């Protein structure tokens, strides 16, 4: 009996380890590649002398745009996240708490799912023409608007779930206490859904950070974002693998920092929500 | 303090009518309890008074002023919710002073009012705590404190004690009554617990299916229920009902299916099938059977200390009597009972109308 339990435990762990390896291996491979020389990499050496030339090239080389890409991604990521959060929160509050007829709620949410299923690349061409005609191509504003549009459906759904979970009685109690709608939103609903806002922000930011096809169409060198910067290491004749890997490794850092902070917030939110 | 009047009030959700033509006048300082089984519309009615539900037709007047289209915050009411609905991210103090802050009351006055409410409710040492750091009873008090600081002219309570355990409920019930005696604010209180209704109310309004079945002082309703529904709803253990028949030529007796009968204190005008309602305390055990007694089999004996409840079976019907004596009865034993003729209620079988009111 005991032995059977043990072997079941072993099997379970084996499965978990396998999955962890499948998930982590590419990541590990990229990070390792960033510390290899091009020759080590192309020879497929497992053991190698770590060196920083890839990072040095990406960060300090005069011809490298990576610093600017990083900055651009930050501006676009933060800008589109703020825009998405403001719109999604207000929309979700309105949809779920201001007594719209059911068909308004459902058709809006349904439409947003359909929109979310459309591959971004199909929109990119049209957006390019539109942005050009209003002079917003190759600007932060243009890309911020595009990313906000792409991420709004998901944010709307997420904020909808969080706001729907705020007990109705709290809103009613605030109404009786004399609060008007902006008051209720600001003083009662927003403080309660803070963990939800954090989670939604992070996802929105990360999606914007990683978005490639639309950024490719709407930006040029001055406004190019990190994924484009990484892509640029693959040229027609040569692929600068180590630089590419180094840039990829660096690009993970902001998301990692965000996750560390957010985890605390999200866990705290779960705990306070558990108490009635 | 204010009066509250409902004039022919109706409420429909789509085609479903939940409140049907209710009229009710609550006097200044009165404590009115709305009671009824779940789904009878009592909470909906309260929420309509609060302004959380619209009134489909009819009029709501508070202090003589029409309030149908006035937002909740301008009705001069406070409400305590079943779930307390405390703002989870605010301390007790902030919860209680929220309405004052929104109204732009100065900080000094706010502190004063919150402190006053906290003194009344014994909350002074919990003001800095968050709701999740408080016990159920304390949360309940904070919810009441939040209602008090606004100095409303009407208090509305929606089953405020139902989330507390039995012991705490009794304690908070007494505190609520004391609070009302102190503040003398007009109060409308919703509950499904008849003990709460009996102990707290100046006047009880019994609702069923969106209609007022009866209203009046607790003991008046207890002694003279308008129909079998009110009779069985108030009182614990509840009133016993027996099917019987008033025969031609014997207007002062109700015959049970097995031929035994209850004697009435006055003649009934009605003939034919009836229901007889007798409260548990009005059925007494007697040692010797005689033509005026009925017999029944003992099913369960439940001593509670001060009184003993005995569940008996007659035919296929179980009924309950209470006795303050300590009895030595065994299950299966057959006993004889006599009913207090003055306390017997006779209802028409459809339970709507009391036939002879013998109080």
Q: Give the total of domains of chain A.
A: 2
CATH architecture assignment name of the largest domain in chain A: Orthogonal Bundle
**Low-confidence regions of chain A:** 271-276
Order of helices and strands of chain B: EEEHEEEHHHEHEHEEHHEEEEEEEEEEE
Range of helix content of chain A: over 70%
Shape of chain A: globular
Q: Approximately what portion of the residues of chain B adopt beta-strand conformation? A: 25-35%
What structural category arises from helix and sheet content of chain B? alpha+beta
Helix tally of chain A equals 13
Distance N to C terminus of chain A? 43 Å
Compute the CA-based radius of gyration of chain A: 23 Å
The major sheet of chain A is characterized as:
none
| CATH superfamily grouping of the largest domain in chain A | MetI-like
Query: Low-confidence parts of chain B, pLDDT < 50 over ≥5 residues?
Result: none
Q: How many β strands of chain B by DSSP?
A: 21
CATH class of the largest domain in chain A: Mainly Alpha
| Overall form of chain B | elongated
What would you note in describing this structure?
The complex is a heterodimer of chains A (276) and B (359). Chain A has helices spanning 2-34, 38-43, 53-60, 66-97, 102-117, 120-133, 140-164, 168-176, 181-192, 194-210, 213-218, 226-231, 241-274. With 276 residues, chain A is mostly helical. Chain A folds into two domains: 2-53; 65-275, MetI-like (MetI-like fold), CATH 1.10.3720.10. Mean pLDDT of chain A is 88; it is low at 271-276. In chain B, a hairpin with a 2-residue loop joins strand 4 and strand 5. In chain B, helix 2 crosses helix 3 (107-121), helix 2 runs parallel beside helix 4 and helix 3 packs across helix 4. The mean pLDDT of chain B is 91. Chain B has 359 residues and is of the alpha+beta class. In chain B, the strands form five sheets. Chain B has a six-stranded mixed sheet, with helices on both faces. A five-stranded antiparallel sheet of chain B has the order 15-19-16-17-18, with no helix packed on it. Chain B has helices spanning 42-50, 92-102, 107-121, 136-149, 166-183, 194-200, 218-223, 228-233; strands at residues 4-13, 16-26, 31-35, 57-62, 65-66, 77-80, 154-158, 186-191, 203-208, 211-216, 240-246, 253-255, 261-263, 272-278, 283-286, 294-303, 308-314, 317-323, 334-339, 345-347, 354-356. Chain B is elongated and about 80 Å long. At the A-B interface, helix 8 and helix 9 of A face strand 6 and helix 2 of B.
